[in-house]
Amino acid sequence: MQEGLALLRTCPMCRHQFDDTAVRVIEERSAMRLMHMSCGECQTAILAMVMASDLGMSTVGVLTDLSANDAERILGTDVFSEDDVLAFYSFIEQQGACRDLAQSKHIHILDRK
Ligand SMILES: [Zn+2]
């Protein structure tokens, strides 16, 4: 997990370093961690998913309007299934919003297909 987390330590928009308190783990599974980060400098909020597999670490991030509390309420539930994880993945892919993030050094997308 540490490798993926290191990628998420700075704001992709303004390079401000996230405070520990600005990072909230929304949902955690054995091989997946969904996190919300908010930048204290430019107020950018990011939803990021870190997934570990036999092939390595995948990190996807998307800009969001959700606050950490909203994200927790909507996404951090017990019904958050593996299907939801895949749905979240395809949501991000369709959004294209991640394209800017993907170009940043801090958050990248690894397509393992
Ligand atoms: Zn920022």
Q: Estimate percent helicity.
A: 25-40%
Poorly predicted runs: 97-113
Which strand order does the major sheet show?
A: 1-2-3-4
Mean pLDDT equals 72
Number of helices: 4
Apparent shape? globular
Main β sheet profile: 4 strands, antiparallel
What's the β-strand tally?
4
Strand content: 25-35%
Main structural class? alpha+beta
Note the gap between the termini. 21 Å
How would you sum up this structure, described in words?
It is a single chain. The chain has helices at residues 2-7, 68-75, 82-95, 98-103; strands at 23-28, 32-38, 45-53, 56-63. It is an alpha+beta fold and 113 residues long. It has a 4-stranded antiparallel sheet. The protein is globular, with a radius of gyration of 13 Å. The chain starts with a helix and ends in a 10-residue tail after the last helix. The model is unreliable at 97-113 (pLDDT under 50). The site of zinc ion has 8 residues, from loops.
What's the structural blueprint in terms of helices and strands?
Elements: H1 2-7, E1 23-28, E2 32-38, E3 45-53, E4 56-63, H2 68-75, H3 82-95, H4 98-103
Antiparallel strand pairs: 1-2, 2-3, 3-4
The protein binds zinc ion.
Describe the structure using short key phrases.
113 residues, alpha+beta, four-stranded antiparallel sheet, 4 strands, 30% helix, globular, disordered C terminus, binds zinc ion
How would you briefly describe this protein structure?
The chain is an alpha+beta fold. 30% of the residues lie in helices and 27% in strands. The chain has helices spanning 2-7, 68-75, 82-95, 98-103; strands at residues 23-28, 32-38, 45-53, 56-63.
